[in-house]
Amino acid sequence: MTKHGLVIDQERCIGCQACAVSCKQENNVPMGQFWNRVLTEGGEKMDTPSGGYPEDGGSGSLDMQYQPTACQHCENAPCVKVCPVNATYTRDDGIVEIDYDKCIGCRYCMAACPYNARVFNWDEPEHMPEEGTGDVEARPQGVVEKCTFCSHRVDEGLDPACVVNCPADARIFGDLDDESSTVSKYIDKYETDQLLEDRGTDPNTYYISGEMSPGRPQTSDKMESELDDVSPWSDGDDDVPSEEADSVGGESSGSSHSVEGGEIPYATPAKSGGDD
Amino acid sequence: MSDPQQPRLTPIDEWEDEAEAMLDDVEYDTDLGVQMARDAIRVSNGELTDAEFHEKYHEAVLDEFGEDERPTKPEGFEDD
What we know:
heterodimer; B: mainly alpha
């Protein structure tokens, strides 16, 4: 079986909102709505830290972290359990999706989602430009909508838009049931958290914090499973020339990667042009 | 309704307030929605089984929606 999951490296996230914007564009998300958000953990407002600057030689207490948040595609999704018309359902590959033709707009799923990942179309959705954007049909007024892991792309063997467009390579998408996938390797190697673990929802979205991972440099729009070799853990012939890897993965991030054996992901120049 | 700038990963007490606000002017039963949401989390936690959850709310869901297509329906469960 395939179980799609997402790893987000919060140490790599730079809060640029590219994921939020590309999600909105790709999925034709109406004006005023976001499926994908980058929250700020720290001060009360976006991009503001808590604490203060060092004073009088003190250490200071400034603290801020970005918290990208969207549908967590929970294994035990409470939103699915409360839907009286079975409009919200879990696909065989673990993606939680909404059948907009069935949705009656009762919003019980919104109340049941502890991540506030769902939005409701209170009014007739407006798009800019009017004809909409991306590759997904607009949803009507009166239904709930949310992140789909870009299932329309996944079904074509493509990574979600937020993953492809993350300039920090902080988002890694793949098959959690495949032990050799980068998501599985990273969950195994790095300290990861799921949001609100005490709820028991068992999200298929994991967050790396503490030690920065090498991320997953995008070499194309394709999902990892569709590529011959992309994993930094691969033993394949296309493994990384160390000098190139150093220049790409090490210096650009300003981080201290710690992949065993000096393996750093190979990043070929990203393909130019559109995404599908 | 939702403010994309603000975190919503709220403690459970505050969540109930938010859930009620979400359902405040819904044309369906607000109390039922909040109760089901609370118990759906209990199902996720393992405090309640799918079958118990389904049976607990089956009548109310039927009354409110005229159907109950939740995936929690246990095998052999007979609809009224």
